[in-house]
Amino acid sequence: MQVTEPSTAPAALLVLGHGAGGDVDAPDLTAVHDAAVAAGVRVALVTQPYRVAGRRAPAPAGHLDEAWTTVVAGIREEGLPLIVGGRSSGARVACRTAHALGAAGVLALAFPLHPPGKPDRSRADELPADLPVLVVNGDRDPFGVPEARGSVEVAVRPGAVHDLRRDLPGTAEIAVGWLRRHGWTR
């Protein structure tokens, strides 16, 4: 786990997880990390145990959720708003565990709405509709793009695919703007 402190007292704690086959150095996570820290947010990047062990294939969902919950509970600071999130698989883990962790909100980058080519296997129910949630997806993402509902906002990045590499500063700006609107920045 990597924790980065802002130059001032933090306004919130943002904990981000990686995608199934990736690491916390994914370009979109790096862009959001840097922009959030600059906006006064403490940011923690969490690597799942299967990646630490050198495996590429993710553990079952229950194991991912358990590992995530343990790490986040261990770094949580009383009185500091907790925002959980991540990219792809990491976004799903954050969504599934947000309530148990008492998160104030969820930032979901490249949320995989369904497996590619299988829109009938929707994961939309994993998005908590009663917490502030921001989903940032590319309009060309083969995993689909969820629809806004309840307190779930969806920002669609034109021309972007699942890796969200197109216009990284724009993606980071959208994420920090959402954090700012909820009072989670300085």
Structural class: alpha/beta
Low-confidence stretches: none
Main sheet makeup: 7 strands, mixed
User: Whole-number radius of gyration?
Assistant: 15 Å
Number of strands: 7
**Helical amount among residues, as a percent range?**
25-40%
Overall spatial form:
globular
Q: Classify the beta-strand content into a percent band.
A: 15-25%
Strand order of the biggest β-sheet: 1-3-2-4-5-6-7
Helical segment tally?
5
SSE order: EEHEHHEHEEEH
Give the rounded overall mean pLDDT: 96
Q: Could you tell me how far the N terminus lies from the C terminus, measured between alpha carbons in angstroms?
A: 24 Å
Q: How would you summarize what this structure contains?
A:
This protein has 186 residues and is of the alpha/beta class. The chain has helices at 27-38, 49-52, 61-75, 89-101, 168-181; strands at 2-4, 12-17, 41-46, 82-87, 105-109, 133-138, 152-157.
List the helices and strands and how they pair.
Layout lengths: L1 E3 L7 E6 L9 H12 L2 E6 L2 H4 L8 H15 L6 E6 L1 H13 L3 E5 L23 E6 L13 E6 L10 H14 L5
Parallel strand pairs: 2-3, 2-4, 4-5, 5-6, 6-7
Antiparallel strand pairs: 1-3
Helix pairs in contact: 1-5, 3-4
